[in-house]
């Protein structure tokens, strides 16, 4: 399964990518902001996207909206990872069409299982 990991913090992308590749066996694509995420999603057509909700250039909800507006990317499941753990924030992300939400900081050993669990639900 090919997953696009999106975060404006390169360290978070690196840790998530290593965990998803080595523990989960995912093929990982990387993007470091919302605009780049849209470009990669259109070009690479990942099976899923794991994306930060808060980014400076284009936040996660804006990216999700742009993905859903295109036929080519409209069906890609998006999982947000965010440090904003307020239940209202999580409900808002889910209401926007996110498949799930993973809290940051995440445990790299647990991340692949959390992603699989959300995608299988």
In the CATH scheme, what's the topology name? Answer: Rossmann fold
- List segments where confidence is low: pLDDT < 50 over at least 5 consecutive residues: none
The value of Rg in angstroms is 13 Å
Measured between the Cα atoms of the first and last residue, the distance is: 16 Å
Task: Write a short abstract of this structure.
This protein is α/β, with parallel strands linked by helices and 121 residues long. It has five helices and five strands; from the N terminus they run βαβαβαβαβα.
SSE topology sketch:
Layout: E1 2-6, H1 10-22, E2 27-31, H2 34-44, E3 48-52, H3 60-68, E4 78-82, H4 87-95, E5 100-103, H5 111-120
Helix pairs in contact: 2-3
For the structure shown, list the relevant keywords.
Rossmann fold, 121 residues, 5-stranded parallel sheet, globular, single chain
Tell me what you see in this structure:
It is a single chain. The chain has helices at residues 10-22, 34-44, 60-68, 87-95, 111-120; strands at residues 2-6, 27-31, 48-52, 78-82, 100-103. With 121 residues, it is of the alpha/beta class. It has one domain (2-120): Rossmann fold. α2 runs parallel beside α3. The longest helix has 13 residues, at 10-22.
């Amino acid at each position: 399964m090919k997953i696009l990991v999106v975060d404006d913090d390169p360290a978070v992308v690196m840790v998530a990518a290593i965990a998803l590749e080595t523990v989960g066996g995912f093929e990982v694509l990387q993007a470091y902001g919302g605009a780049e995420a849209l470009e990669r999603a259109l070009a690479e057509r990942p099976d899923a996207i794991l994306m930060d909700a808060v980014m400076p250039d284009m936040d996660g909800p804006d990216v999700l909206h742009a993905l859903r507006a295109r036929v080519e990317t409209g069906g890609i499941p998006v999982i947000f990872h965010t440090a904003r753990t307020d239940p209202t924030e999580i409900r808002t992300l889910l209401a926007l069409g996110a498949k799930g939400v993973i809290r940051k900081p995440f445990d790299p050993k647990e991340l692949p299982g959390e992603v699989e669990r959300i995608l299988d639900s």
